[in-house]
Design goal:
The complex is a heterodimer.
Chain A (H helix, E strand, L loop, with lengths): L4 E5 L3 H13 L3 E5 L2 H10 L4 E5 L12 H8 L6 E5 L4 H8 L11 E4 L3 H16 L1
Parallel strand pairs in A: 1-2, 1-3, 3-4, 4-5
Chain B lengths: L2 E6 L3 H13 L2 E6 L2 H10 L4 E5 L12 H6 L9 E5 L4 H8 L11 E4 L3 H16 L7 E4 L7 H8 L8 H15 L5 E11 L2 E10 L2 E11 H14 L10 E7 L3 E7 L9 E2 H7 L2 H15 L1 H4 L2 E2 L7 H8 L7 H21 L3 E5 L3 E6 L4 E5 L1 H5 L12 E4 L8 E3 L5 E3 L6 E5 L2 H14 L5 H12 L18 H18 L4 H15 L10 H23 L1 H8 L7 E4 L4 E4 L2 E3 L3 H12 L4 E3 H9 L7 H18 L9 E4 L3 E4 L6
Parallel strand pairs in B: 1-2, 1-3, 3-4, 4-5, 6-7
Antiparallel strand pairs in B: 7-8, 8-9, 9-11, 10-11, 12-18, 13-17, 14-15, 15-16, 17-20, 18-19, 21-22, 22-23, 24-26, 25-26
Helix pairs in contact in B: 6-7, 10-17, 12-18, 13-19, 15-17, 15-18, 16-19, 18-19, 21-22, 21-23
The chains are: A alpha/beta, B alpha+beta.
Chain lengths: ~130, ~675
């Protein structure tokens, strides 16, 4: 079976390395991005199966930083995206998952970092199944 | 037309304030203070949007997500929902709005109570704008309010009276039209084209600023309409065929669904049902309409013959096609006996005819003193199989044609608009038979029972299906029906062959199916009684005809299995493997000639000379005459005409008929 390719975008380098490790152990091939531009490049090339996007990709202390969500909204609508964040808010989930009049919501799922690696793995599996 | 909201919240005070505000905005709001309460309301009422509180049981219980669970129920999937809570958490939102992996998410929006009234109003407006495709401004005009209206439609669709539910169902069906014609400004509903089994078909003119369009709209219970669409998709030709409508739009809500069909190139306002068309047009125009129906509209379908499946015989094919349950013998005969008894009593009290029945016979004594005796046709139906019946030829067909569900344009173009019984493996005779049966019972004005008897006798006096019979002896008012049936049979013979037996058997099944709806408990006017006796009379006459084919069955029972080709020169009858085959005189003479010289070479020039009476076999015309007749003969007697087993070609010389010699 072909390995599923996952984009993991997070500006927290340490967290990224840990999760990357977990995902690779699960048999996924992982491409990482540390900022919105890198993530955008990989998304636009289009040969990934799922994208995991940190909500605050630029500044973890900036409440107004929604760069991950903005990427999900604007780039590569066909690629299923999971929004990941240390700071889950009602507004952000609503924006990520709200049904649209035309087309799909920006993201297929919304996970808090606090929920641990298993929540993320389940979300990835669901996204891959739905894609088949 | 009101926008209806169901507001579900166990906090009565909050509910009251918000409901008041929403009502002021023009919404019609129903309140539910518990999940059970909400379920009851949804059972009865038609709503557009639901607002649902998350904690419906206990405000203080963090684990109470009863509102969310309610929103996830499959039966409410089609209702756009807004989830509301005083305790917003990102987990609630995630659960309400996604993940959008399987089908629809449970809700279209999420609100926290703290966000206030403005946010709620905005969310409600958004839900209506984005998720309810209802044309609120559509003007719906009924040209004839006396004969049709939305309540009238509901009453035609619902099999039982629905009492207090009516107002909501009427709203629901009106919404359906507002969905279906989302892009238009006005629709005119002028007349009902046909109605059958809980479906109503009507013609609709739709207008928008710079355009107008015409549709045939069929509406009914959602499950019924969906089943019909599934059949349409499986059988309808992929390319456009004149006479087969195009599917334009489907709309659905909780209970009902509607389909808009377009008839390209046809002014729908000019169309009439075939029944009306034939009452109002000349015979020639009616024949043209039928020709159009069988050649253009259905020609393509009926050509898609498929080999009969080996595990089915003709009887079973008809039973399946007509959705008759496999008759259990005793049950069928008991039911038939009570039907016969009731009908006999009714007919006698109308002084129409005296019907007396024994176990295996049925006797009609007409008021003019004439008597007709037949085998009880119901007895025949308990047979599993008829040995002389050919294997079923199956094809793609509509399954149920009637003079009501076929509509005809001014120019004689016939359109089929009912796909509820269509299928890909139906007996090839079925479309012809169902139409023929409906002509009898919808078009023939019944005044004189004996005249209908004469009518049927005349129709049965043929040796092969396509044979024309003179209509001279037919009562003038029945002549049109007579000629229509003959046209139908001519086409049936072209498509399915000349054999009468499978056609009669199918007709018998169709008639008996029709008799299922005879209600023992009501009193009928005399005309209707005539119709039912006509059913019974025809069934008996057909049964007798089918039963007459019995001798060979008898031979079969004695163990002398009918094999090969049997020729009865006196009666001009041919049987192949016990099956009666109808031949033209030339074909018959040719076969007799080959049979006299069986198992030996018959030279081409000898055949041409002795059978056709020409001396020179080299002339192209005679050559092709012989070829044509051999081909036709093969198509009638060979199991696979391209690999003949009886009539073999001896290349360069002539033909040889191979028969097993009688021992």
């Amino acid at each position: 079976m072909k390995k599923a390719i996952i984009l993991f975008a997070d500006n927290d380098e340490e967290f990224l390395a840990t999760r990357r490790n977990t995902l690779e152990q699960e048999g996924y091939q992982v491409l990482s991005a540390l900022n919105p531009d890198e993530a955008r490049n990989i998304l636009e090339q289009g040969n990934i199966d799922v994208a995991i996007l940190d909500l605050r990709l630029m500044n973890d202390n900036d409440e107004k930083d929604l760069s991950g969500l903005n990427l999900a909204k604007r780039v590569a609508p066909a690629i299923p995206k999971i929004i990941l964040t240390k700071f889950p808010t009602v507004e952000a989930v609503r924006e990520a998952l709200a049904p649209q009049l035309i087309g799909l919501p920006p993201a297929v799922d919304f996970i808090a970092k606090q929920e641990g690696p298993s929540a993320l793995l389940t979300a990835i599996q669901k996204a891959l199944i739905a894609q088949d | 037309m009101a926008k209806k909201i169901l507001f579900i919240d166990n906090d009565q005070d909050f509910l009251d304030t918000r409901v008041e505000k929403l009502s002021k905005e023009g919404y019609e709001v129903l309140e539910a203070v518990s999940i059970e309460n909400a379920e009851q309301i949804l059972e009865r009422n038609w709503i557009h949007v639901a607002i649902i509180d998350v904690r419906m049981r206990d405000e203080n219980d963090g684990k109470d997500t009863s509102g969310l669970s309610f929103a996830k129920k499959k039966i409410y999937e089609s209702i756009p929902k807004i989830i509301l809570t005083g305790y917003p958490s990102f987990e609630y939102v995630r659960e309400a709005l996604g993940p959008a992996l399987e089908g629809m998410p449970p809700a279209v929006d999420f609100l926290s109570k703290q966000e206030g009234w403005e946010a709620m109003l905005h969310a409600v407006e958004q839900a209506f704008a984005k998720h309810i495709r209802i044309n609120w401004d559509l003007q719906i005009v009924w040209t004839d309010l006396k004969s049709s209206s939305f309540p009238h439609l509901v009453s035609l669709i619902e099999p039982q009276p629905i009492g207090a539910l009516l107002p909501d169902r009427v709203d629901e069906i009106e919404d359906l039209f507002r969905k279906l014609f989302y892009d238009y400004e006005q629709v005119t509903l002028s007349r009902i084209l046909w109605q059958k089994d809980g479906r109503v078909s009507m013609d609709v003119q739709a207008y928008a600023k710079s355009r107008e369009a015409q549709f045939v709209v069929t509406c009914g219970h959602a499950s019924v309409i969906h089943a019909e669409l599934e059949r349409y998709h499986s059988v309808a030709p992929k390319t456009h065929v004149v006479g087969i409508p195009l599917l334009i739009q489907v709309a659905e809500n909780r209970h009902y669904a509607a389909v808009a069909w377009s008839l390209p190139g046809q002014d729908i306002t000019e169309t009439r049902s075939l029944a009306r068309f034939s009452r109002e047009s000349t015979d020639r125009k009616v024949t043209t309409a039928l020709e159009n129906l069988f050649q253009t509209t259905l020609g393509h379908w009926h050509k898609q013959l498929c080999a009969g499946e080996s595990d089915k015989n003709l009887t079973r094919s008809y039973l399946e096609c007509l959705r008759i349950e496999e008759p259990d013998k005793l049950g069928l005969l008991t039911k038939a006996a009570s039907l016969l008894e009731a009908l006999a009593k009714e007919a006698s009290s109308c002084r129409l005819v005296e019907i007396s029945t024994t176990h295996d016979q049925i006797v009609f004594r007409f008021s003019n003193g004439k008597v007709a005796t037949y085998t009880n046709p119901f007895l025949l139906l308990t047979k599993d199989e008829f040995v002389f019946m050919p294997r079923p030829t199956l094809c793609t067909a509509l399954g149920h044609l009637s003079v009501n569900n076929i509509i005809v344009g001014y120019n004689g173009q016939a359109w089929v608009t009912d796909f509820a019984c269509a299928g890909t493996a139906l007996p090839v005779w079925q479309d012809f038979i169902s139409l023929e049966a409906s002509i009898r019972f919808n078009l023939m004005d019944k005044r004189d029972l004996y005249a209908t008897y004469e009518f049927e006798k005349q129709l049965l006096a043929v040796n092969c299906l396509g044979e024309a019979v003179s209509a001279v002896d037919i009562e003038p008012e029945y002549r049109q029906a007579f000629s229509m049936i003959q046209t139908i049979r001519r086409y049936a013979a072209q498509v399915a062959g000349d054999d009468l037996a499978p056609y009669y058997l199918g007709l018998l099944f169709n008639i008996v199916k029709g008799m299922e709806s005879y209600d023992l408990n009501i009193c009928r006017p005399r005309q209707e009684v005539i119709t039912w006796v006509h059913h019974l009379l025809l069934a008996s006459m057909l049964g007798e005809k089918i039963d007459r084919e019995e001798p060979f069955l008898g031979a079969d029972r004695l163990g002398a299995k009918a094999v090969g080709i049997q020729i009865d020169e006196i009666n001009h009858e041919i049987r192949v493997q016990g099956r009666k085959v109808n031949l033209t005189p030339t074909e018959f003479n040719l076969l007799v000639y080959l049979h006299h010289n069986a198992n030996q070479l018959c030279k081409r020039q000898d055949i041409v000379r002795d059978v056709f009476g020409y001396s020179n076999a080299d002339r192209d015309a005679e050559k092709s005459l012989l070829n044509t007749n051999i081909e036709r003969l093969r198509s009638k007697i060979e199991a696979d005409p391209s690999h003949p087993e009886y009539i073999l070609t001896i290349r360069g010389h002539g033909y040889k008929l191979v028969v097993e010699l009688a021992l």
